[in-house]
Design a protein that fits this description.
Blueprint lengths: L5 E5 L1 H10 L6 H10 L4 E5 L9 H10 L3 E6 L3 H10 L3 E4 L19 H13 L3 E6 L3 H9 L4 E5 L1 H5 L2 H20 L3 E5 L7 H5 L4 E6 L1 H25 L7
Parallel strand pairs: 1-2, 1-8, 2-3, 3-4, 4-5, 5-6, 6-7, 7-8
The structure holds pyridoxine-5'-phosphate (PXP).
The site of pyridoxine-5'-phosphate has 19 residues, from strand 8 and helix 10.
């Protein structure tokens, strides 16, 4: 049976592979199409300030090419906002960002940054982009998101994913309560960060959950489910090459 919770695929790490060599492959648009054909309801990319994986041109091309929804993760930073306003993604998810971090660490302090966020949310909504705030499952952050006029929140599941046993169950309960509170406040509830095949089940069962945005574990799994076919394709190309003259 299909889960009513939908999947948005974050393809940042397809671009990480490309940027490792500054090559023109793997193509980000092709990756997005494969995810869409496999059932993703949307494509997520994070245009980081240091442009370590996704580049400005990727966002422009994806916005034109994909058939589903583009969700742009972004810091509240002027140059990224300018690009977002130009590209008009279907949705923008505002995240905290620190240059040295390996990935987003923790949720946005929406409550502590109301003034700075209000202008950004307005600028995005003015061009028709729906705004989501990536927050920890805390009532004051949910209240701030609703007061700021965001239509969505994305609950940070990174803590849940790092914990085990009773502590993980406690974090799951916090996420469940936060989803309920956010729904009552009129917010659409998404979640993501750190989700894998092993830990996604309980998050899927949280009532009111709309979309889970998942990236790293899917791209990692794709390496293993695709490595045999990629090896066979290379062997076939080698076998098809004209033989060298014997010397
Ligand atoms: N949601 C947000 C806001 C994120 O910053 C990220 C990571 O870019 C994800 C979801 C996806 O997390 P992961 O790659 O661990 O699945």
């Amino acid at each position: 049976m299909n889960s009513p919770v939908r999947l948005g695929v974050n393809i940042d790490h397809v671009a990480t592979l490309r940027q490792a060599r500054r090559s023109d492959y793997p193509d980000i648009v092709e990756a997005a199409r494969i995810c869409e054909e496999a059932g993703a309801c949307g494509i997520t990319v994070h245009l980081r300030e240091d442009r370590r994986h996704i580049q400005d041109d990727d966002v422009i091309r994806l916005r034109r090419a994909i058939a589903t929804r583009l969700n742009l993760e972004m810091a509240n930073a002027p140059d990224v906002l300018a690009r977002a306003v130009e590209v008009r993604p279907h949705e923008a998810c505002l995240v905290p960002e620190h240059r040295e971090e390996l990935t987003t660490e923790g949720g946005l302090d929406a409550d502590g940054n109301r003034q700075a966020l209000a202008a950004t949310i307005r600028a995005l909504q003015d061009v028709g982009t729906e705004v989501s705030l990536f927050i920890d499952p805390e009532p004051r952050q949910i209240e701030a998101a609703a007061a700021l006029g965001a239509t969505h929140i994305e609950l940070h599941t990174g803590t849940y994913c790092r914990l085990h046993g009773a502590r993980q169950a406690e974090e799951l309960a916090r996420l469940t309560e936060a989803a309920q509170l956010a729904h009552q406040a009129g917010l659409i509830v998404n979640a993501g960060h750190g989700l894998t095949l092993a830990n996604v089940g309980p998050v899927c069962r949280i009532p009111r959950m709309h979309v889970l945005n998942i990236g790293h574990s899917i791209v990692c799994h794709a390496v293993f489910v695709g490595l045999a076919a990629a090896t066979r394709a290379m062997l076939a190309a080698m076998a098809a090459a004209p033989q060298a003259e014997p010397s």
